[in-house]
Amino acid sequence: MNQTRTFLLFALMFVAYLLWTEWQKDYGPHPQAAAPTAQNEAAKAADGSVPGAGTPAAVPTDAVANEGKGQLVTLSNDVLRLTIDTRGGSIVRSELLAYPDEPVTKKNPNPPPVRLLDDDPAHFFAAQDGLVSNTGAAPDHRALFQASTTDAKLADGQASTGLDLTWSDPSGVKVTKRYTLKRGGYVVDFDQRIDNGSQAAWSGNAYQQMQRVPAPKVNWFKAYTDPAQHSFFGAAWYSPESKFESLLFNDFTKKPLNRTFAGGWISMQQHYFFAAWIPPADQNVTYSTAIIDPDAATPRYLVRAFGPAIQVAPGQSVDSTARLYIGPKLQGTLDAIAPGLDLTANYGWLTIIATPLHWLLSQLHTISGNWGVAIVLLVLIIKAALFKLTDAQFRSGARMRKLQPRVQALKERYGDDRVKMQQAMMELYKKEKINPMAGCLPMLVTVPIFLGLLRVLSESIELRHAPFFGWIHDLSAADPYYVLPVLYFIVTLLTQRMMSTAGMDPTQAKMMKVMPLLFGVFFAFFPAGLVLYWTVNGATSLLQQWWINRSVDRAHEKARTA
Prior knowledge:
12 helices; 2 domains; protein transport; transmembrane; alpha+beta; elongated; cell membrane; Beta-galactosidase, Chain A, domain 5; 5-stranded mixed beta sheet; 9-stranded antiparallel beta sheet; Membr_insert_YidC_N; 36% helix
């Protein structure tokens, strides 16, 4: 009976966790807009909502329709290929060369790389930058630049490569944008040099922003089976005071961001990958969100970093810099780029559990060379660490199973008198030295670990397209032949058979019989890595329970014949 209660409690807590994560998306705590300040008012002016003298020039929200695109040029290193539109110098396409869009197979040996930034209207996602000024000419993200080359590639032996875009005004103001990529890096170093060749002082502001459309809608089956549909998709940012915060696209109107702080960054997030603008850490930057054409069929969602004022005297030059990360959520490496960037894995309240689990899983992969083997080893380590707890749980369950005939007799004796029934059962447990709550303590430890590992296996890009053995070519996708879900069904069925149903009401007993089938179907479309973990975990628990049942049976038989 104790094992039955534990099994049902786990199922309830797992479903509750799924409901909690969905509730958090719609009703959970979100950051509140800061009180109005001078720089917040500047951000409003940048959106065109607060006109008036003494405020920075407004940032245009999009390109004028009849201007169209400029020339498309490319900049690439060994892991990243960027397509840049000379109209504004916007990065309109990014291909992650080390990450194929689909698993590599014999039938598909060379799948195209993942495209994060994309100029396809259905998946539009662009990184933009520019300058605005109330005192002189300035190139925003609509201005037409001239490129130094049409294709800048990292050559053998080179540590970095760059691409220059230039813009000039008849007044004498000249702006040169330089994008630089280093070997093996996903960080784009961005520099804007403002050369003031005019006769008057130039003042203005630099800004960086990203625009994208929401993910296309999918049918119910893909919404359930595709792990990407359960991952966070929206904007996120970091500040030294509030740390990592996020905002779903649906909340852009209800809880817009408009805050000023130094040492932060702003990003657009999706499953496994993200892009983030990282201004200089010593600058007070105003971060904001907005919706472009909210009534359109496909509105665009915008996040912006609006920098402090820049002053350039006649005949002088000033550089405005920023960095743009376009790449995977490689945990353990991102904080070296900017504080808090590792938090883009977005484990939420499970971070304190998921982060060490990911570290341990990574170390086991280093040893084994296979992520599936690393998952199996992780199961064994967790089972060994929790052995004492689960041993107490299983022994309590085995002893209570032995008491079921006596419990049933007490029920027949006391009928509907629940008070006397409970008193008699407590006396029985006390006499047999059984703690009926012994099975609950392990749940307080094992359930958070399982939920933390669920987040790790769902969000860790290292498992994306990672093969195991045989038919499993991708641990982040469902088992194509449902072998692991069937094995899990068998393990769950055998576990259920070891649980006594004596004393259960008929409805509860029937529910326990169909539970293995329900869980087998439930896991059939989960990522193979997660099902592998739970199958191995269930098999080891089954063996442990079988061994304990045998030892309890021997002890009981020995005591009976003594």
